[in-house]
Design brief:
This protein is an alpha/beta fold. Helix content is 42%, strand content 19%. The protein is globular and about 65 Å long. The mean pLDDT is 95.
């Protein structure tokens, strides 16, 4: 099957073409309009998607060497995300589905991130433990089999990616903050100070980043201007160390409890160099194979949506023309069949 995937859940307009599991193209257009605001402005995101969705799809088809008539099915994100942004991609997919007479399927954005682990040349095998880390989500899930999930824990407040962006903003770093902190952390001293690990004393697979964020703010405000300039990279390194440490700790504890020897990490924060290094090291010590998607598949992209959609279309699942966007959609929710 050749699948055209479409992703417009936040501030990336993306389209991809898959021939079964082979990625023929994966076009991502990032919206620069939000840089001056220090975060994503929903209305501006929707307008940018409206302008970009058709040319991005056309580019994906051209790079994939296929025409629309050769596509066997369409996969599109219908939640979670910004409702206005989601509707742009969803309505486009409905339109091309109606025109071509080919089926389409609404895909959960979180499920798409899970399936970024199946885009590699040697994809991960089920069952495995998946750590989902992004700007909007931080959760641990056992992937029992294709499309079968057991949720173990999630963040009780801020997602880890959100914490990275908020800390970057208070440190005076440009948006998006995650890559900026990762870059500076490599230049700083992670032992400069010790920040708290959220919920680390509790027997839970949940996460919490509000306390860490507040601790960084309190420490930063206690420094004078000269000290802030001198220790900016050190604060980044210490913050990243704490943010990553609890992710690794919880993941390894869950893998041990459930007897899983494979871990897949997915989401935008999976691109963080500190997390990649720490998780690989912890896995090697415990005999656990840790998978990370290629960098192009870590952030929001349509290839992962197409891959998840492929799995559902192969099972005969399709979505109706009445499918809506669901900004708070949960993993495992079957609203794509409504």
């Amino acid at each position: 099957m050749k699948i055209l995937g479409i992703e417009t859940s936040c501030d990336e307009t993306s389209a991809a073409v898959l021939d079964n599991q082979i990625v023929l193209s994966n076009v991502i257009s990032s919206q620069q309009v939000h840089l001056n605001f220090g975060g994503v402005v929903p209305e501006l995101a929707s307008r940018a998607h409206l302008r970009k969705v058709i040319p991005v799809v056309e580019q994906a088809l051209a790079e994939g060497g296929v025409c629309l008539a050769e596509i066997d099915g369409f996969a599109v994100t219908h939640g979670p995300g910004l409702v206005g942004a989601l509707l742009v991609g969803l309505n486009y997919a409905k339109g091309v589905s109606a025109v071509t007479g080919k089926p389409y399927i609404g895909v959960n954005h979180i499920e798409g991130h899970v399936y970024s682990n199946f885009l590699e040349d040697s994809p991960i095998e089920c069952p495995f433990l998946c750590l989902l880390v992004s700007g909007g989500h931080t959760q641990l899930v056992v992937v029992r089999d294709h499309l079968e999930y057991q949720a173990l824990g999630k963040t009780r407040d801020d997602a880890v990616g959100e914490a990275f962006d908020k800390v970057a903003k208070l440190l005076g770093l440009p948006y998006p903050g995650g890559p900026q902190i990762d870059r500076l952390a490599a230049q700083g001293d992670p032992e400069y100070t010790e920040f708290p690990l959220g919920l680390h004393k509790e027997k839970t697979f949940d996460f919490s980043y509000s306390g860490l964020k507040t601790a960084v703010l309190t420490h930063w405000q206690s420094l004078g201007a000269a000290e802030q300039e001198r220790h900016q990279a050190d604060v980044c390194a210490a913050f990243q160390k704490a943010a990553v440490k609890i992710l690794v700790k919880r993941t390894m504890e869950a893998a041990k409890k459930y007897g899983l020897k494979a871990v897949g990490v997915a989401g935008g924060v999976a691109a963080n160099s500190g997390l990649r290094k720490a998780m690989k090291t912890a896995g090697e010590k415990r005999g656990i194979v840790v998978h990370f998607p290629k960098m192009a598949f870590c952030t929001d992209n349509a290839a992962m949506i197409a891959r998840a959609g492929l799995e559902r279309l192969k099972r005969g699942e399709t979505s109706k023309a009445t499918l809506n966007a669901f900004p708070s959609l949960q993993l495992g929710d079957a609203r794509h069949l409504l």
